[in-house]
Amino acid sequence: MLIxxxxxxxxxxxxxxxxxxxxxxxxKYKRSVLGILWSVLYPLLMMSVMALIFSQMFKFNMExxxxxxxxxxxxxxxxxxxxxxxxxxxxxxxxFSLINKVYIPKYIFPLAKCLFAGxxxxxxxxxxxxxxxxxxxxxxxTKCYLNIYYLIIPYIFLCxxxxxxxxxxxxxxxxxxxxxxxxxxGIILTILNYVTPIFYPLAMLPTYLQTxxxxxxxxxxxxxxxxxxxxxxxxxxxxxxxxxxxxxVMMIFGMYFFxxxxxxxVYYM
Length: 269
Prior knowledge:
- It contains 11 helices and no strands.
- It has one domain.
- 70% of the residues lie in helices and 0% in strands.
- The protein has helices at residues 2-12, 14-28, 38-57, 67-88, 96-101, 108-134, 153-177, 181-195, 207-213, 217-231, 237-261.
- The longest helix has 27 residues, at 108-134.
- Helix 7 runs antiparallel to helix 10 and helix 10 (217-231) runs antiparallel to helix 11.
């Protein structure tokens, strides 16, 4: 019933949703010479710096694995989660003047932020594809090839979107009551950046830490995409089921929490 009601309201207010996404694009790239091209150039430049640091200075070499693609996959997936949740947590607070004037379903604001970040996420896939095409060596077994398992990629993206959306609803509601969440979440994201195997191989950790790190939902999404891109194989049943369960449960919980608290927002703005 919860999802059904939200879906019907989204159809009714889809014009507003589109306008909110357009507004975010205009704000982000206002007075920028390169504009939307930064969505492609920024991850490419960041990947170059990270690759230099971790593959040369720290010598994170993984035999038979294209480290550039390994690194880029982690950066792109984590970047989407970070951008979407960071922008969503203030989506209600920053739109209070609009919410206070006319009736608008409040949950449309976190959703607009997640969709906007999702469009940027799709743009960052362009440099990832370029890296896959030009890097790697067939002799060393590090060349990435197109394979049938690419068909599972939309499912992976759907799962991380559900998880991110649920977190965004939860964070945006909490921020209304406690502004400190803005700073606390920044610290949590920094911790997540290190406990998620983005720039290092999970195998380098002790066995007990590997078991703990595998419970991280972000590991499931990133690991599944790497299975497809790097190793041309289907992700394990644990990853396939775990991705959907964590994503769906987080989405429902976030929506429920947001809906229960939204009528009190006006008293804390």
